[in-house]
Design goal:
Helix content: 55-70%
Order of helices and strands: HHH
Low-confidence stretches: none
Structural class: mainly alpha
Radius of gyration: 25 Å
Largest sheet: none
Number of domains: 1
Distance between the termini: 63 Å
Number of strands: 0
Amino acid sequence: MKTTVDIPDEDLREVMRLTGAKTKREAIVQALRDFNRRKRVSRLVKHFGTFKSIRTNAEIEADQVRTQEKRLRGTG
């Protein structure tokens, strides 16, 4: 889509520098894609809650050991 937009020179130069883009178009497209990706990820994360609910490998392994011990004792 062809669009005419007045973008502040300093902001555009910074986007080109940060993205490593060689052209203004490339910089803008990359910035738009990055913005869209960040928004999608942000919305997705809201559905999963916080990272506090994720168990560590040590916790998972401890649960597995307890389960195995219960089976060996015949109580699980």
